[in-house]
Amino acid sequence: MNDRNKQIGLKIKIARIIAKIDQEELAKRIGVEPVTVSRMESGSRNITAVEIEKLSKALNRPLSYFYEGKEEEYQKADNLRVNFKDLDSKDLEAIERVVSQIREIKREKEEPEEDSGEKRGRI
To answer: What is the pLDDT of residues 64-82, one digit of tens each?
Structure first.
């Protein structure tokens, strides 16, 4: 079992949990036995390029999700998704409003100030 297999296996497991499917369902979608999915997720089995392609489609993830070294970024995004999955629609809407406000503040900071008096009264 090598580190790369473990890394890909963890990504498979996270994506499967976010997709709210069990190992049996994922196995059906990619045409393998559930024990094979378990071995993939644990990192104890090498995964072929063809299987990665099937996993990509079944889990609605880009191929790069499995290969790129942006583990921290994906991990943060996946952690957010896992933490938010049990929230109701009102909570999610409130979070979306906060995120929109943060983005607007960032945009305002990035825009060059042509007329400094113009922005003072906006907030």
So the answer is: 888 776 556 656 766 777 7
CA angle, 66 then 52 then 82, to 5°: 50
Token readout for 18 is 């976010």
Place of tokens 């790129």: 68
Distance, CA of 62 to CA of 40 (rounded, Å): 18
The count of structural domains within the chain is: 2
What is the span of the domain harbouring residue 90? Answer: 77-112
Listed in sequence order, the residues at least 6 apart from 7 whose beta carbon sits closer than 8 Å to its beta carbon are 43, 71
Extended beta strands in 48-107, E state: none
Task: Give pLDDT, residue 113.
Answer: 57
The pTM assigned to this predicted structure is 0.57
